[in-house]
Amino acid sequence: MKYTKSKNKIEIFDKSEFNIKQICECGQMFRYFVCEDGSYIVISGDKLAKICELDDKYEVYTNSVNYFVNYFDLDNDYGAIKNNLKHFDVLTKAIENGYGIRIVSADKFETIIEFIISANNNIKRIQKIVEKLCEIAPIIKTEFGQFHRFPTVDELSLQSDEWFDNLGAGYRAGYLKQTIKDLKNVDLTKVEKLSSDELYKWLISLKGVGPKVASCIMLFGFGRREYFPVDTWVEQVYYNHFDKTKRTRKQIQTYFENIFKENSGIVQQYLFYFERSKK
Predict the structure, then answer these.
(1) In the chain, what are the domains?
(2) For residue 8, pLDDT beyond 70
């Protein structure tokens, strides 16, 4: 990935390896806004960036340059990954369709909360609930507008049961309340050092975190690329294009992880985006 960075700007020159629309719309993030001029505002935790597409490059404007270099995984060679995957016929089409997808490295606490909200939910509704949840947090003031940052665990732990019930999250409100309480004194930088098996077990112990949600948090929040979350879209891809012998989501997940190993997460995003784009 060819890019340069300065005090408050990143310039990304290889548009075959970066497409902001695809990155935002492949189900890995929920706090983004499309501006009237076609640019994107992306918020992660208390960090914000505006991404503008030009004819020959993207320009990313932010006061957190190094954060968004890491967030968009700009130092990873996705071209090499894609070349290694194209011998799978279905992946050739999926990669062509989602050529500019990159796996984000999101704020860990935010990722846990957002993916609890995501369970059995659709993206537009998830975004609506997340933005309502963010209304209690201070505003990030920028030349591009004013936006709430994601609230901290301390800020959320101060909210009443009634406040959670009014988020529109339905039964997930109870999960959020309990998990926020459980995370109140947890140091996620220490949790991050756990092995993948230990981390997955810890996530599963949180209220509202099942296997699919845990796999998403592992992938997008903790950078464990060997995980392959399975949802309805991925099930459709599996039964339409793969061996059709597996019957449970766990079996399908294991099947894909055994094939794609450390590239499982990026393959999942190509297939998810491809199947969803067809609709």
Answers:
(1) 3-75 (3.30.310.260), 77-99+225-279 (1.10.1670.10), 108-220 (1.10.340.30)
(2) yes
pLDDT in tens, 167-180: 999 999 999 999 99
Let me know if 240 is exposed, middle or buried by CB neighbors in 10 A (0-12, 13-18, 19+): exposed
pLDDT at 244: 82
What is the Cα gyration radius of the chain? 19
DSSP string, 108-161: HHHHHHHHHHHTT--HHHHHHHHHHHHTTSPEEEETTEEEEPPPPHHHHHTS-H
**CA distance linking residue 27 with residue 47, whole number of Å:** 20
Residue 15 neighbours by CB under 8 Å, 6+ apart: 53, 56, 57, 58, 100
Question: What DSSP element (H or E) covers 85?
Answer: helix 78-85
Rounded Cα gap, residues 143 and 194, in angstroms: 40
Residue where the block lists tokens 């994107």: 40
**Residues 102-158: pLDDT tens digits?**
999 999 999 999 999 999 899 999 999 999 999 999 999 888 889 999 999 999 999
Distance in angstroms (rounded) separating the CA atoms of residues 182 and 82: 39
Q: What is the rounded average pLDDT for all residues in the chain? A: 94
